[in-house]
């Protein structure tokens, strides 16, 4: 059996009268990238905070790198790197100063920290920014600095809470590439995201969650095959409810979300034939993805 880095068993968190994480269980194996995928408010950050021992659960059992959490969270934290959801860099300090201050939290000497700074800057592609103030960095650079900072204690486990939210596509791709290089080095990653594409590209396995409950778990492609398993045609431009009647005989399933009709079909050419006279429509045929899985399981899109 693979070694387990994080284990949650029936973990529940309630705020006043609202259960925001409900009997949640999962196990992250060492060396894998495990995702928590869900829309805003699903409970992702709450789970990440409980794993870090920053928020106590009301019930259930959490073990991180062999230590019971929150009881021995400090022990586990020494081997964990964290990128919180919101930027908490010291804006007035330079890049180098931020790393120096952070290293001291791990009881590293100035000498020890200075010895690792060049490789961290290289990792984050911030070599030329060492003496720049954080306030002047782009969003992508700040996120890369937070990632470099999380690596200062050479952690075996990384907990990344929405590491690319708010970044442009180029900056996002650069973070993905950096995360893949960490996985290649054998690091374990727990990643939260509301980007389907990010989860699909990076995660070995993931949980899909909604309102504190796990609604699916597995490998991204496994979930897609299991839940969808056919082509998708997105149809825009017509009245989705009228269109439904036209194509229902050649579709396994039809979902309407906003102005788009999602047609799931193993015979997409038949759907096109049915609609060939309708030049007013825009049809996009594509393979299924995790967005379709979420739509199938919840009846709504995850996109904000
Ligand atoms: N300290 C808190 N007190 C009360 N409610 C909270 C607190 N933290 C989070 N919540 C609520 O818990 C739910 C889950 O939040 P969160 O874990 O931040 O979700 P996500 O990270 O998936 O967006 C939300 O409805 C949020 O409003
Ligand atoms: Mg969050």
Automatic annotation (TrEMBL):
InterPro entries named among the record's database cross-references: AAA+_ATPase (IPR003593), ABC_transporter-like_ATP-bd (IPR003439), ABC_transporter-like_CS (IPR017871), ABC_transporter_ATP-binding (IPR050763), ABC_transptNodI (IPR005978), P-loop_NTPase (IPR027417)
Q: Which SUPFAM superfamilies match?
A: P-loop containing nucleoside triphosphate hydrolases
From the Swiss-Prot or TrEMBL record, what is one GO molecular function term?
transmembrane transporter activity
Per the record, the major location class is: membrane
By what name is this protein known?
Answer: Nodulation factor ABC transporter ATP-binding protein NodI
Q: Where in the cell is it found?
A: Cell membrane
Q: Which family does it belong to?
A: Belongs to the ABC transporter superfamily.
Organism lineage string = Bacteria, Pseudomonadati, Pseudomonadota, Alphaproteobacteria, Hyphomicrobiales
Q: Which GO terms describe its cellular component?
A: plasma membrane
What's the source species for this entry?
Sinorhizobium alkalisoli
Q: Which UniProt keywords apply?
A: ATP-binding, Cell inner membrane, Cell membrane, Membrane, Nodulation, Nucleotide-binding, Translocase, Transport
One Pfam family of this protein, by short name? Answer: ABC_tran
